[in-house]
Design a protein that fits this description.
16 strands, 6-blade_b-propeller_TolB-like, four-stranded antiparallel β-sheet, mainly beta, NHL repeat containing protein
């Protein structure tokens, strides 16, 4: 099935509540100091031993606020179009044609959309009716170009600002610098992968996780590191 637009399903039909979760960690450290004093006179030797024990207790309390949904909650069945035109595909900057991968940059309120059948990645501000081309020049690749795609699939942005894009027909994951456009050449981050599909970035480490279509593995690679290891499978 071909999708022509991106939909977010948001909101619940029942009331939510906030709950505070508190975790307390207690650490106790005991230090023992022994002091020995020896006094010698002509006829007498006196030895005095003093032992001092110090106990330090550290209590760390972590408080987390979570949103609790009722077990009767239901998501709204009607989504809201946030990019593209419902039921209409096209190649203009207000249209999409089979969008696949999506990354939401919550810091800057920008979506990065892998627009597969238009051979490009769009940078789309949330709330806008149009996007701009971030990567790809809109022409299909023969897998020999650094600014063209044959089947763009996954997209993810690292905290470094680098954006990673997978092309499952060219078996490659590209890295694009911040503020790229249709003329920017990407660099090969990983290749000879089979059919790389979706990409996830661990925000704490910038490690890249790539799913492989038609395979049994998930691969992991570090940001700016052109080697990968098997993370699962």
């Amino acid at each position: 099935m071909t999708e022509h637009t991106l939909l977010f399903r948001s909101g619940v039909t029942s009331t939510t509540t906030s709950e505070i979760l508190t975790t307390t960690t207690t650490t106790t450290t005991t230090t023992t100091t022994t002091t020995t004093t020896t006094t010698t006179t002509t006829t007498t030797t006196t030895t005095t031993t003093t032992t001092t024990t110090t106990t330090t207790t550290t209590i760390t309390t972590t408080t987390t606020a979570v949103c609790v949904f009722s077990n009767q909650s239901q998501w709204n069945q009607n989504g809201t179009t946030v990019a593209g035109m419902s039921g209409v595909n096209g190649s203009s900057l207000s249209q999409l044609y089979n969008p696949v991968g999506l990354h939401l940059d919550t810091l800057n309120n920008i979506m990065y959309i892998a627009d597969q059948n238009n051979y490009r990645v769009l940078k789309w501000p949330v709330g806008s009716s149009t996007g701009t081309i971030f990567a790809g020049n809109g022409m299909p690749s023969a897998c020999d170009s650094a600014n063209q795609f044959l089947s763009v699939a996954g997209v993810a942005k690292a905290s470094s600002g680098n954006v990673y894009v997978s092309d499952n027909q060219c078996a490659t994951v590209f890295q694009f610098p911040p503020n790229s456009n249709s003329t920017t050449n990407g660099t090969i981050e990983l290749n000879d992968l089979g059919y790389p599909e979706l990409i996830f970035l661990d925000p704490s480490t910038n490690d890249i996780y790539v799913t492989l279509s038609g395979d049994t593995r998930v691969l992991k690679a570090a940001d700016n590191n052109q080697t990968s290891v098997i993370a699962a499978g």
